[in-house]
Amino acid sequence: MMDLEQKSIKRIKLASEMSLQHYGKPLVCTYSGGKDSDVMLELFKRSGVPFEVHNSHTTVDAPPTVYHIRKRFGELEDMGIKAAIEMPKYKGKRVSMWTLIPQKGMPPSRLMRYCCQILKETGCANRFIGTGVRWDESTARTERQAYETISKVKADKITATDEIMLMNDNLEKRKMTEHCMQKNKMVVNPIIDWEHRDIWEYIRSERIEYNPLYDHGYSRVGCIGCPMASKGRWKQFADFPTYQRAYIRAFDKMLEYLQVNCKKNPPRWKNGYEVFLWWMEDKNIEGQMDLIEDGFIQ
Ligand code: SF4
Asked: The whole model's pTM is what?
């Protein structure tokens, strides 16, 4: 455990040095309100490096998560650490999941996770950031490479054992790397090799305060209704019914949009509730969602 902690702190220190050198700004600890974020934040604090904290307000986090984030950020500010919550924007305007769905004309799905880009992966352009990505939670583990050099110039300075990687997992690694470089965002994943039990052991042994949802039957916390949560969404909506109503209202508005804009091939649902039921059937898993048949594309 100590080894893991020290290894992660070493990664943070190295990334911090590079951030200060390359950008002239401190490393940013991204924070979502989940257990991995709390562990990473603790490691940032223990590393002794200067850092800032950033949270993307997704607009679909459960209230206990939002309160947990606010509480944490209040504490950080009291410690003199800059902690910012960023509100999402789309086409220059403030947006939420409920206003985004009608604009996109379809519910978010496993294949169409448009909301992540707009609501979750906001901010931190031209910065070096830390994320709580871990191999044992990544669906693309086999395709991931643990460490990546950052650029030709930087490559000279990074040895094979240095432990930096870009936010470029998965099959499109090369493309993502280039995209990151264009946006000049660099990423370190300090806890990439921590396993689920390491996270909990550390939280318990170091008495780290965590999101109360974990004590209420949640093994993961995140956006309520996220299509990636599959069956877990039923519990989420049972616990937070106002979110269900908000999705249904958003689907109603989405249908209004489709009725006006897809006259030739109007959607087959009568109302937002019907869309909700279809969406919750979890047919929209990979390979099964048919955008034409299901009335989203003409
Ligand atoms: S609902 Fe899921 S896919 Fe959408 S922003 Fe949240 S995590 Fe990403």
From this structure: 0.82
